[in-house]
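Sequence, please.
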């Protein structure tokens, strides 16, 4: 697995941070609550947070009421 020894992050860590940022935004958590410290990992978390925010905005613009409206 690729790992940057100098910075202390790897692809799995970045993917995990992204997924956690995405979930945080999906649950309405504020962007300032990022639990990470390293610049690169924080950027991955924020990317996930921003992507989820865009999805929520698009759903709100379309009047999507969530899972049940997609099933019906």
């Amino acid at each position: 697995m690729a790992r940057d020894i100098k910075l202390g992050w790897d692809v799995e860590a970045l993917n995990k941070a992204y997924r956690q940022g995405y979930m945080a935004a999906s649950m309405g958590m504020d962007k300032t609550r990022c639990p990470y410290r390293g610049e690169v990992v924080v950027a991955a978390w924020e990317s996930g947070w921003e992507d989820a925010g865009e999805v929520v905005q698009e759903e709100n613009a379309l009047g999507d009421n969530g899972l049940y409206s997609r099933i019906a």
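The radius of gyration is 15 Å.
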